[in-house]
Amino acid sequence: MESKNKQENSYARSLIEANLNSIIVIDQTGKITDTNQVFIEIAGKDRKTILGSFCFDYFTDPKKVKAVCKQIFKIGYINDYELTITDHKEKDVLFNGFVYKDKEEKVLGAILMARSIEKQKVIEHELREAKVIAENATKIAEDATKIAEDATKIAEDAVKSKQQFLSNMSHEIRTPMNAIIGFTKVVLKTDLTAKQKEYLTAIKISGDALIVLINDILDLAKVDAGKLIFEKTPFKLALSVTAMLHLFETKIQEKNLKLITNYDKRIPEVLIGDPTRLHQIVLNLVSNAVKFTNKGKIVVSVQLLSQDNEKVSIEFSVCDSGIGVSADKMEKIFENFQQAYSGSSKIYGGTGLGLAIAKQLVEFQGGTIQVKSEINKGATFSFVLDFQKTTAEAVLEPEIIELSRDIKDTKILVVEDMELNQLLMKTLLDDFGFECDITANGKLAIEKLKTKTYDIILMDLQMPEMDGFEATEYIRNTMKSQIPIIALTADVTTVDVEKCKAVGMNDYMAKPVDERLLYSKLVAFSKKPLLIIEHKIGQNLSIKKIKYVDMNYLIKLTKSNPVLMIEMINAYLKQTPPLIATIKKSLEAKDWKSIHAAIHKMIPSFSIMGISPDVEKIAKKIQEYAFAIEISKEINELILELEKVCGQACEELEMELENLKK
């Protein structure tokens, strides 16, 4: 029996020592009756000292251990209770305990096990730190995002501020320039000495140059702000190119240069694109070529590179025989405010913005632009753009017509706060023959509209008390009026143009006002039966008026002398048909010089016979085409139209001649 007990005790001892956890056995008072080597090592004392001592003394919180032991003896066990064993380092443990009994189920004591959770604590600590780091990183990321958002907002606000500044600057500069250029034009139409005309012309040229600079700066701002909007309009490329090049005829002649145009006839007649932006690009390149070329020629080429069922790819090139660009400058000339030579602006003028704007206008449309050049041998600027094909007709475009006094009872309301501009608009409208009232802001304009009827409103945008946008909204939404409203704006940014359309304005004009364009727009919106030349690009010109001859003018010219009138009519009837025949014959022979000479002889007779100035415009267009020696189809259409008009005029004059003879 004794041998069996020894064997059991040996087995129990082996189990206790084999356990990797600290084990202590206590009686009901808490005294240690047994322990294993793991606990001895942790306690740092020998077995004899430990046995008989209280277990509470080996933990950092004895009261807590007493409470735990009491709970074990009360309910029989405890699981996973965290405590800290007193050690030279202190060690966190997970405490488990259960009672043990004799054969009669009498509780003898309790067995306590303490499993080290140091590694777990380290892991938990690392996890907490990782969590803190993650939270900090998240906060940093959120802060960075907020900083980025704030920076973006600041940048956007800066762009808006710049746009607003440029808008205000444009308005402030354009307003006085409007008056300066406008009144200069008015005075130039009066009787002047040669010296006075020379001085006034110099003022006008300087003013025009300043307006070009303002437009360049505003265009650059719109590119930077990403506010450029490209239209998708059907237009006739051949006619657009010709019209652009006509603008340089005077300068080309002054410098004794030769302008040559090579146009690829394989290009479809009507394309879809933005003709206005195309004009801007080509005008910048041709202007640059004219500026830096003092002898030789400028060749403008438009070539079809490729096409498919939907689009065409076209290369435009401007080649000159000017001073050229050095190799080290070619990469920089497309940058803002850059020029080929440091002294270019002093010698040739300009701001260095033209090529920068041209490049950005090309690239914003998905195109490419490049330059090839040699010093003193000239330069070739070329760009490639894609255009959509279309079967649609080109958009209706009103022609700018010659000024006429045939306007009766058309009433214009001018809404403008600047006194100088008020005076200029009154001068121009009086000169056109329109009736006009002038008021200083939108509120006063609305009061005028309540008591008087007008045919058209010319509305400034920036005014005190009520601006042009607010006034237009009130007229459209509250007064329910559809009277044509044309905005007069010194700010030509895309934002304001869109806003003009949004509030219900019919059209807009940039200041300084071009008097011919103003007249054209007023005629287009007037309901009066006026003589207007209109055309669809790609279609024949047509004149919408039944009578071509104004006998009242001839009567006034001859002071009602019937003999003189008969003589003058006979002279016209004798000279006109042969001149028409000469023009047609010269067209077949491509004798451009003869066409030019014949037209030159015809033009004075139009005013003598009281024939509308618009017929003279057709004749002058023929002269222009003849001078350019190109696009024979267009000149052919114009000559047919001139023949028709002159034929009708001759018929009318023959009838008048019969009446006079009677």
UniProtKB/TrEMBL annotation:
Source organism superkingdom: Bacteria
Positions bearing 4-aspartylphosphate: D460
Catalytic activity line of the entry: ATP + protein L-histidine = ADP + protein N-phospho-L-histidine
Alphabetical list of PROSITE patterns matching this protein: HIS_KIN, PAS, RESPONSE_REGULATORY
Domain Response regulatory: 411-526
Its membrane topology: Multi-pass membrane protein
One Pfam family in the UniProt entry: HATPase_c
Localization of this protein: Cell membrane
Chief localization: membrane
Protein name stated in the entry: Sensory/regulatory protein RpfC
Domain PAS intervals: 8-63
A GO cellular-component term linked to this record: plasma membrane
UniProt KW keywords: ATP-binding, Cell membrane, Kinase, Membrane, Nucleotide-binding, Phosphoprotein, Transferase, Transmembrane, Transmembrane helix, Two-component regulatory system
Source organism of the structure: Flavobacterium shii
